[in-house]
Amino acid sequence: MNYVLSVSEINRYIKELISKDMIMSGLWVRGEISNYKYHYSGHMYFTLKDEKCLIKCVMFKSHASALKFEPENGGRVIIKGYVSVFERDGQYQLYVEEMQPDGIGNLHMAFEQLKKKLFEEGLFDEANKKRLPFLPRAVGIVTSSTGSVVRDIINISSRRFREIELKIFPVAVQGEQAAGQISGAIKKLNRLGCVDVIILARGGGSLEELWAFNEEVVARSIFNSVIPVVSAVGHETDYTISDFVADVRAPTPSAAAEIVIPERAVLKERIMLLEARLKNGASAKIQNERAQLERLRASSAFRQPYDRLYQERMRLDTLNRYMHKAMLSVMEKKRSDLSLLIGKLDALSPLSIMSRGYGVIRSLEDGEVVRSVKAVRENERLSVELFDGKIICRAEDIKINPGL
């Protein structure tokens, strides 16, 4: 029998399938609200429909509390959320995270779309972020020439580190020309190479007023900048695309100045502290080395420098005597072995055998050794070799032993 699933397993499996779908994980949906119910817990339940279909929706209190308007039946809205399954009822529904009235949500949608695109391309990756210089010689300020932003940055710079040079690059910070001017300023500062860090600054405003900093051309200019860029656009709660792409995001222009420009008094105090630590460390090192030198001077190696040499000479003489004795022992053994071998060779020598009365008989005709009387003819001339000479004779009579 095939494996039988329970209802809970089916619902859980369908939920997992939907949760893994990228399209279902982040949706923008336009429709009309109906069957709207506000629960006392703060959650909102309603149906989103168009001319042909509908989908059940829920917006939990954590997201509903951020709404700037009160939803109502018949209202047309644009919703951001994700689709999932409510396992208990086996019902899929749209879980709403953001909601805005239809007609004014185009900028929000464009913002999210560009944000997603640049994120997927890696423009927000921490690995691409550049480190800010510890003590910049010059800081580039890309902002409007009017307003309080420039004055605030100048005041903070003068108070913290007056010697750091500020280079103001005035641009439009809102309007149709703003994005192009901001992008051009970043590129020009990179070409000139006259600053060590760039602050991109603007005061607070609405989404429409800050839109220049959400343009793709600005984002790519920040990403391609060789010089580190600090984005300080709007108030602390305002987020723009430039904030995500920049190497550092500051909550306000004033905070950006404090991040980029160190405080002279703090640096001076730190330098003095490091100087004191360096002097103390050097003094301790000198004292340790001096103590080590005194220990070496007091050692026997310095008080009696030749003592070790004399000891090694005596050791060498002892080793020389041992070596000479060992060599004599080896030579004596080799001499004994040689005498033994000579004795063995002498015992096997033909001359030694012949000295005991033996001889070697050869035929004078062919010089061959006679090994049997059968090989000798009567009256054949023979040579008898003894240990001390040779006898020439003739075989007058040949007798063969019986039985051979």
TrEMBL record:
Pfam families: Exonuc_VII_L (PF02601), tRNA_anti_2 (PF13742). Keywords: Cytoplasm, Exonuclease, Hydrolase, Nuclease. InterPro entries: Exonuc_VII_L, Exonuc_VII_lsu_C, OB-fold_nuc-bd_dom. The keyword Nuclease applies. Its EC number is 3.1.11.6. Residues 123-339 form the Exonuclease VII large subunit C-terminal domain. GO terms for cellular component: cytoplasm; exodeoxyribonuclease VII complex. GO terms for molecular function: exodeoxyribonuclease VII activity; nucleic acid binding. Its main location: cytoplasm. It is found in: Cytoplasm. Heterooligomer composed of large and small subunits. Belongs to the XseA family. PANTHER family: EXODEOXYRIBONUCLEASE 7 LARGE SUBUNIT (PTHR30008). Bidirectionally degrades single-stranded DNA into large acid-insoluble oligonucleotides, which are then degraded further into small acid-soluble oligonucleotides. This is Exodeoxyribonuclease 7 large subunit.
